[in-house]
């Protein structure tokens, strides 16, 4: 069974630019979560999508946004990049949002210069 | 607000030297407690889910236990390949958000 996949693996962007990260969940999973993991910090929850709808949002500014497609894959968009957005962005999926463990992808390393 | 505190922050062991990692939590009703392993620069790998006090789960050299206030991850006779950061997360039973709160992790290094 294929796991969660993310693309790209690495990205280098300049301050003020925009970036789109992509995630494909495990087959059969309908929930997708996005997390930010800055160096030396814990996982910070960004967004939760389930059945195509945004279900919950973490304490991040509106320039972090995303969507979930009919095939349950998801995109995370970050506008007006700032230096502090440099982090490992992790996508996870679960079979539903309610009480099921999350399975993580390998992450996208974003560096903002 | 849900809180998860993991200790110690870092742990160095000799190969074969058993030890335990601690995860203390406060949550308004526990739906589940998760343990993950994370290698540097990679995504966390799911290990266990515990649902109620007294529950135990085992996988190879790892054993996770749960009480009403904390969970332990016991590592028996560790090997160098067990070196990683171990993350604990709690999922609340109430509020409808179901978003887990993660601890900062324990960085484990096992020396040969």
Question: Layout of helices and strands, plus pairs?
Answer:
The complex is a heterodimer of chains A (113) and B (112).
Chain A: E1 5-7, E2 10-13, E3 19-24, E4 31-37, E5 44-50, E6 53-57, E7 64-68, E8 74-78, E9 87-94, E10 103-104, E11 108-112
Parallel strand pairs in A: 2-11
Antiparallel strand pairs in A: 1-3, 3-8, 4-5, 4-9, 5-6, 7-8, 9-10, 9-11
Chain B: E1 3-7, E2 10-14, E3 19-26, E4 30-38, E5 45-50, E6 56-59, E7 62-66, E8 70-75, E9 84-92, E10 101-102, E11 106-111
Parallel strand pairs in B: 2-11
Antiparallel strand pairs in B: 1-3, 3-8, 4-5, 4-9, 6-7, 7-8, 9-10, 9-11
Query: What's the overall geometry of chain B?
Result: globular
Radius of gyration of chain A: 13 Å
Strand content of chain B: over 45%
For the residues shown, what is the average pLDDT of chain A? 94
Structural class of chain A: mainly beta
Q: Low-confidence spans of chain B: pLDDT under 50, at least 5 residues?
A: none
- Beta-strand segment tally of chain A: 11
Give the termini distance of chain A in whole angstroms: 37 Å
The largest contact between protein chains, plus residue counts on each side, is: A-B, 24 and 22 residues
Beta content of chain A comes to over 45%
Q: How would you name the oligomeric state of the polypeptide chains in this document?
A: heterodimer
Average pLDDT figure of chain B: 94
User: Which structural class fits the helix and strand makeup of chain B?
Assistant: mainly beta
- Proportion of helical residues of chain B: under 10%
Largest beta-sheet details of chain A: 7 strands, mixed
Percent range of helical residues of chain A: under 10%
């Amino acid at each position: 069974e294929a796991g969660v996949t993310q693309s790209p693996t690495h990205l280098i962007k300049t301050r003020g630019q925009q970036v789109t990260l992509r995630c494909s969940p495990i087959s059969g999973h309908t929930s997708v979560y996005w997390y930010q993991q800055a160096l030396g910090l814990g996982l910070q929850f960004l967004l939760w999508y389930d059945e195509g709808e945004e279900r919950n949002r973490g304490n991040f500014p509106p320039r972090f946004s995303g969507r979930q497609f009919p095939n349950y894959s998801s995109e995370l968009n970050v506008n007006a990049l700032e230096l502090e957005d440099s982090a490992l962005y992790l996508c996870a999926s679960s079979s539903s949002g309610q009480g099921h463990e999350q399975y993580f992808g390998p992450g996208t390393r974003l560096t903002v210069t | 607000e849900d809180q998860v505190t993991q200790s110690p922050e870092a742990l160095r062991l000799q190969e074969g030297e058993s030890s335990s990692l601690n995860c203390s939590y406060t949550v308004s009703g526990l739906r589940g407690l998760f343990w993950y392993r994370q290698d540097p620069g990679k995504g966390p790998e799911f290990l266990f889910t515990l649902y109620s006090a007294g529950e135990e789960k085992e996988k190879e050299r790892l054993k996770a236990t749960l009480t009403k206030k904390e969970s332990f991850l016991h590592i028996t006779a560790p090997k160098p390949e067990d070196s990683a950061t171990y993350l604990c997360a709690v999922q609340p039973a109430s509020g409808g958000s179901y978003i887990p709160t993660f601890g900062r992790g324990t960085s484990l290094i096992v020396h040969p």
